Amino acid sequence: MASLSGRQFRAMVKKDIVMELRTKEMIMSMGLYSLLTMVVYFVALSQTGSNFDPRDIAAGLLWLAFIFTSMLGLNRSLVHEKDQGCLEALLLSPVDRPVIFFAKVIGNLIFLLAVEALTIPVFGFLFLQGSSLDIGSMALVPLIMFAGSVGIAGVGTLLATMSVNTSGKDFVLPVLFIPLMYPLLLGAVSATAAAITGGPDAMGGFWIGMAWVVGYDVIMLLASYGLYEFIVGA
Fold first, then answer.
1. pLDDT of 83-115, one tens digit each?
2. What's the Cα-to-Cα distance from 188 to each of 93, 143, 150, 180, rounded to whole Å?
3. Alpha helices for the chain (secondary structure H)
4. Nearest to 155, CA basis, from 118, 130, 181
């Protein structure tokens, strides 16, 4: 039974990846939106005084961009399934609901990480160029990005599944998603800011923020796992 579930899981993840590689719709739209958001931030902050240090708000700007970009991708991933009848076919097939949930989570996580890998270098070029950065602490940024993205993908997949069957899915998802992301943002922004600032004093703040994000991931993934079968069966 476990081997069957594993094959089903791999098949669904492969299907999402192959479909995206063929169309590139979600990666292109998310990537372009994220990059344009970086440009808007840069233009809006370009007239600040010379005493302004972009590192003071860099972490918050970065995570805001990722939150809004992820909503675009989450909506598109489930809308495609709904419009093409794939979601109904999956629900009618002999596949456990948790397998469907975790397959969609992994697919959304992969796409989000790909967009982040594209966005972070551009963000560093625009906002951190010329700043004295601690290379050792900056190497921790991918760690907090991955941990935060796990929470975004897990909670976002559950909420996108709920909203895709509503008439106002483009409005319902942000209304549900953003308040639930608040605890994650607290820890993720704190940890990212500490990594950007660097220094021995900042590392304590990084690990506290990291622990907050990991705790959020565990609690919310377990809650989403437990609720998913009820949501898709409703």
1. 666 666 666 666 777 788 888 899 889 989 999
2. 38, 10, 12, 14
3. 2-23, 25-45, 55-83, 86-92, 97-127, 135-138, 141-163, 169-197, 200-233
4. 181
Structure confidence by residue, pLDDT tens digits, 123-172:
888 887 766 666 777 788 889 999 999 999 999 988 888 887 777 667 78
- Among 123, 48, 111, 36, which residue's Cα sits nearest to residue 77? 111
Q: What is the DSSP letter of 94?
A: S
Residue 229: how many CB atoms within 10 A of its CB? 14
pTM of the model: 0.88
Q: Map residue 177 onto helix, strand or coil.
A: helix
Q: Decide: 81 and 169 in contact? Cβ < 8 Å.
A: no
Close Cβ partners of 218 (under 8 Å, ≥ 6 residues apart): none
d(CA 127, CA 125): 6
Q: How far is Cα 175 from Cα 170, in angstroms, rounded to an integer? A: 9
Tokens of 108: 């959304």
